Amino acid sequence: MTKEKFKKVIAVIGLPRLIVSTFFLAIVVTAAVCGIDVASFFSSTLLYWGMWVVLVLAMVPSIKCGIGPNFGVSLGIVCGLLGSLLAIEFGIANYVGPWGSMLFAMAVAAVIAWFVGIGYGRLLNMVKGSEMTVTTYIGYSIIYLMCIVWFRAPFSNGEIKWPVSGNGVRNSVAMETSFGYLLNDFLAFDIGSVHVPTGIILFGLLMCGVVYLFFRTKTGMAITAAGANPTFARASGIDVDKKRLTAMGLSTMLGAIGIVVYTQGFGFLQAYTAPLQMGFICVASVLIGGSTTTKSTILNVIIGTFLYQGLIIFTPPVSNHLLAGTDISDTMRQIIQNGVILYALAQSKGGSAE
User: Fold this and answer.
1) 75: which residues sit within 8 A by CB, 6+ positions away?
2) pLDDT band for position 353 (50/70/90)?
3) Which of 77, 245, 271, 329 is most buried by its number of CB atoms within 10 A?
4) 8 A C-beta contact, residue 312 and residue 51
5) CB of 215 closer than 8 Å to CB of 226
6) For residue range 129-162, what is the model confidence (pLDDT) as tens digits?
7) For 77-106, what is each residue's pLDDT tens digit?
8) Alpha helices in 127-197 (DSSP H)
9) Hey, is 347 helix, strand or coil?
10) Helix 131-152 vs helix 92-126: angle between axes, to the nearest 10 degrees?
11) 3-state secondary structure of 196
């Protein structure tokens, strides 16, 4: 392959995706050669893809509207956690069953997240050119602020509150009596030794389809135009600031719904600092999939989420086998996560208000 052709391949595939895909393939082959149960880890990859894909999908509206990767998706995550806690607090599953409880959590979380996202978008409209810095600060700040709120929140349900103090939210709240594992088990089946969690995969694809169709509507195309070329968009009569608000409302809603899906898949609701790194994982995933700080597609989300989760799941057993007594999985996660983010930011060559 000539140097020119290689550059074209890199341009089409993207350097982060090429490196991570190659490394992932090498890890899978190594696992098979070492006699590691590849099927079980592939099953876990499918499950975690479903748990994460909606959260990663929250990056698409913010990138398309010109704000860039939404490091502040933690705002949506907090709204989703609140919706899930309210479903448990009011015992919604006792009245309408687990499915009704999950839909209640999603609906409440989405409504709260929409208004939070609009306020969030207004703030970002005031700091054009510094959005990614501000969203990172907000993403961290909201988690630590909510630690105080969770500790003092006046929940009365015994499954939520601390047993001694009588209020506040526990570190981990079991979801079994509400809607734990609901999507994981729905229509699940096995292909040989590979377990396919059909429900959570279908839900992830459904949400991807909804967002895809939204960006084919007049409003969606206006958001894309406002992000691609704000000056031209204004000349065409598009209210750029308003479209940015809509995009951030949608992004925050997806984050809220995504954490409900993640929580039911994990089986436990984890508050306090547990979601602290989720924003960075979502950003890294979408960038690995081929997105940039200015362009993103649904396919980038699907591929990036699979590669990121697959790599994180397959790395520990392989590293433990090759380097007995060690576990470099978290180190590898940090290298990949921060590396692809740094690469994307370097390629963006800064930013501007327009």
Assistant:
1) 113, 116, 117, 120, 138, 139, 142, 252, 255
2) very low
3) 77
4) no
5) no
6) 888 889 989 999 999 999 999 998 989 888 898 8
7) 999 999 999 999 999 999 999 999 999 999
8) 131-152, 182-185
9) helix
10) 140
11) strand
